[in-house]
């Protein structure tokens, strides 16, 4: 497959935008004005959010993200973390004991998956979910209980390895925990002890991992980057303002930069790694990034993720499946089913406020628009929205000027539905004889409160439940066990194996998972 560099990706994105400008009016019945983003210029920030009761006036003065140039934490993996929402530091000592799973009895029938009577050789590729991000950070506990490791354990593959941080740097990148788990709206503490050392560079350099690697997932990784060759002199500046991508510091812990200049990760694996079964999770990473970091959340971004992204997902899966290799692919969850979308529910706003008057601007604080609150809408977890909710009292009248990054309208929500993309993933799975894990259906069932895990535990998808960690996006150890079981079910169904499911209740009792 030809190398896809950042310039090519930018061209593809612009083509997708032009295509969308033509197609979307036909699909939605709405007129769409196509404009390329204007040059960044100094702009007047939006007015502060205010709430007022009829008899008295209460002013709330948040600092909107665009007003003070606040961005999601530099170097942080927290999907929605902003510096102003962190109120303290914390220390953490690991308590999880996943190694105790080895003491539990296990009997596996691999069926057609067996290789000369031996367990199949398993590898995993993907983004933050597959790498084991938890509580907005990459750290040892999350890595050891990521779903690929749990699947490998249920398959009796004792030597499956992830590029874990060592015990002396067990807290890895650091992570965030709720300051007050009982609070109505979230604030976080930042874990700052036992961190992995980071050396400044372009990209920054984390402590290397030199052992065997079977889980090749890296935070920020998408399938187009699996085929990406790093050329420092030809790579355009990325959105972080540097000539490197967010996944590179993690990938380069176990793949040398020189190797990455010669070959993409997918090609490197195909040429150098012996495997029989692969797990390939994709696109959720890029789509969530669009939700959390775009200054202008719009339908064009979604169209790019679900067209160009689908193409690269299929080509990567086909490459890994060459020679009759077996594999597992995944659908993308709906944004409404993530816990971070429940942090600032519009139902709370409508229940408390006597009136709601919200306008919002584009990223340059122009084109002021009125939010139609009679239609479904969503407020994103940003500092401006946090200040609005934290300052709101029963009976207040709400008048607020926000930015488009704070608001998701009905049309944006409808166009962000990954239903079409997921249909293409299902077709791809059939064409390539791959097992399919329907994360979209799983997350929806968990959100609705109707999912009961192996062992009888009801899974709770609320912000303080047992499925999502404190970042509202990536699973707890319990959530990873649930996903591992769905992977096993898909493998058994497609390939006729009888790999036992992980008893989640027993998993909790054995490892101390929470």
Structure description:
The structure is a single chain. This protein is of the alpha/beta class. The chain has a domain at 92-341 and 432-511. It contains 17 helices and 16 strands. It has a five-stranded mixed sheet with strand order 2-1-14-11-12, covered by helices on one side. A four-stranded parallel sheet has the order 4-9-10-16, sandwiched between helices. The protein has a three-stranded mixed sheet with strand order 3-6-5, with no helix packed on it. A hairpin with a 5-residue loop joins strand 7 (198-199) and strand 8 (205-206). Helix 1 (6-28) packs across helix 10 (299-320), helix 4 crosses helix 16 and helix 10 packs parallel to helix 14 (419-431). The two termini are 42 Å apart. Mean pLDDT is 82; it is low at 1-76 and 294-299.
CA-based shape: globular
Number of helices: 17
What is the quaternary state of this protein?
single chain
What is the total tally of β strands?
A: 16
Mean pLDDT: 82
Biggest sheet: strands, sense, closure? 5 strands, mixed
Strand order of the largest sheet: 2-1-14-11-12
Terminal CA distance reads: 42 Å
Compact overview of the structure:
The protein is α/β, with parallel strands linked by helices and 514 residues long.
Strands, helices and their partners?
Elements: H1 6-28, E1 50-52, E2 57-59, E3 86-90, E4 122-125, H2 128-131, H3 140-144, H4 147-154, E5 176-178, E6 188-191, E7 198-199, E8 205-206, H5 223-226, H6 248-251, H7 257-262, H8 265-272, E9 277-280, H9 284-293, H10 299-320, E10 326-330, H11 346-352, E11 355-361, E12 369-370, E13 378-379, H12 383-390, E14 397-403, E15 407-408, H13 410-415, H14 419-431, E16 435-437, H15 439-447, H16 477-495, H17 504-511
Parallel strand pairs: 3-6, 4-9, 9-10, 10-16, 11-14
Antiparallel strand pairs: 1-2, 1-14, 5-6, 7-8, 11-12, 13-15
């Amino acid at each position: 497959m030809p190398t896809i560099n950042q310039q090519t990706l930018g061209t593809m994105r612009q083509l997708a935008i032009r295509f969308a400008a033509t197609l979307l009016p036909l699909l939605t019945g709405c007129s769409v004005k196509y404009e390329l983003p204007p040059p960044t210029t100094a702009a007047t920030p939006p007015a502060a959010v205010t709430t007022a009761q009829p008899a008295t006036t209460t002013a709330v003065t948040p600092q909107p993200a665009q007003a003070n140039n606040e961005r999601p934490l530099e170097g942080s993996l927290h999907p929605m973390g902003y510096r102003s929402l962190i109120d303290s530091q914390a220390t953490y000592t690991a308590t999880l004991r996943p190694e105790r799973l080895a003491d539990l009895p296990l009997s596996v029938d691999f069926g057609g998956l067996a290789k000369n009577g031996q367990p199949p050789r398993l590898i995993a590729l993907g983004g933050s979910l597959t790498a084991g991000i938890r509580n907005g950070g990459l750290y040892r506990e999350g890595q050891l209980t990521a779903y690929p490791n749990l699947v490998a354990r249920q398959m009796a593959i004792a030597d499956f390895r992830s590029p874990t941080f060592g015990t002396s740097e067990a807290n890895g990148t650091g992570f965030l925990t709720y300051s007050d788990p009982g609070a109505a709206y979230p604030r976080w503490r930042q874990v700052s002890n036992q961190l992995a050392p980071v050396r400044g560079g372009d990209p920054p350099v984390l402590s290397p991992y030199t052992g065997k690697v079977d889980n090749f997932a890296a935070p920020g990784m998408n399938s187009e980057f699996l085929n990406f060759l790093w050329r420092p002199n030809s790579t355009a500046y990325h959105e972080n303002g540097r000539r490197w991508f967010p996944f590179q510091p993690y990938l380069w812990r176990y793949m040398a930069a020189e190797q990455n200049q010669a070959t993409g990760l997918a090609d490197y694996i195909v040429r150098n790694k012996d495997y029989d079964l692969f797990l390939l999770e994709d696109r959720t990473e890029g789509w969530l990034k669009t939700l959390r970091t775009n200054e202008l959340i719009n339908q064009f971004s979604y169209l790019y993720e679900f067209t160009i992204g689908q193409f690269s997902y299929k080509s990567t899966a086909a490459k890994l499946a060459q020679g009759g290799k077996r594999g597992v692919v995944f659908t993308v969850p709906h944004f409404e089913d993530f816990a971070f979308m429940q942090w600032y529910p519009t139902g709370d706003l409508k229940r408390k406020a006597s009136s709601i008057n919200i306008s919002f601007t584009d990223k340059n604080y122009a084109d002021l628009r009125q939010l139609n609150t009679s239609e479904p809408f969503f407020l994103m977890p940003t500092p401006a929205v946090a200040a609005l909710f934290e300052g709101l009292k029963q009976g207040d009248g709400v008048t607020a000027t926000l930015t488009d990054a704070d608001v998701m309208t009905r049309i944006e929500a409808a166009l962000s539905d990954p239903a079409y993309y997921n249909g293409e993933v299902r077709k791809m799975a059939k064409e390539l004889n791959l097992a399919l894990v329907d994360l979209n259906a799983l997350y929806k069932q968990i959100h609705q409160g109707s999912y009961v895990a192996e062992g009888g535990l009801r899974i709770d998808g609320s912000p303080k439940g047992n499925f999502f960690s404190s970042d509202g996006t990536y699973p707890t150890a319990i959530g990873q066990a649930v996903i591992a079981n769905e992977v096993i079910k898909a493998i058994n169904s497609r390939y006729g194996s009888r790999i036992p499911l992980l008893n989640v209740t027993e998993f909790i009792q054995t490892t101390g998972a929470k």
